[in-house]
Structures are given as structure tokens and as C-alpha cells.
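Fig. S4 source data, part A: sequence.
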Amino acid sequence: MSLSRVVGSFALVASLGNAPLQCKHDPDPTMRTEDSAGDALWSLAEDFRAKGNDEAARQTLRFLVDRYPSNRHVPAARAELEGAAPAPSDAGTGSAADRK
């Protein structure tokens, strides 16, 4: 067996050994670097509310519910739109910049 075949075989085995590191996997949601559109809308509504612009907050929440119905903030947004008190902001809902 020639040296080039041995080296070629070794390179092939070495590259296959790294294959699991290259496979697709679901990202850890706690390690996100960007907000989803729904998360950004929720943060925007919170900002409007904090600045006393309740109408803008309600319009933003309506848009969130209508446009992104599967977003994790929709249940709280619906509750607020139906007259419940604003949902408390939890630490995991800030913008991506806040999580850095």
C-alpha cells in the first residue's frame, strides 16, 4: 500500500470523525443572539407602556396577536387586551442586547 493511500485513508477517517460536530441541531433558546419578531413586538409594547403611551402599546399587542399567534407572548398579550393588568416583565423577555 502506498504512502499516499495511507495518508488519504487517514484523512478520510479523521474527517468522518468530525461529522457529528457538523450536523444540524436545534439552537438553545437561552443562547439566542437576536429577538424573534414577536419578542421584539412584545418589548416594544412594554416600552410604550413604560412611557405612558397605552394606546400604542395596545396597537402593538393587537399586531403581535394577529401576526404572530404562536409567539410565546401571545397569551399575555391577549389577557392584557381583554382588560387584565399588564403582564409583569420577566427577565427572559428583554432584547438580545439586554441578554449580553
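Fig. S4 source data, part B ends here. The radius of gyration is 24 Å.
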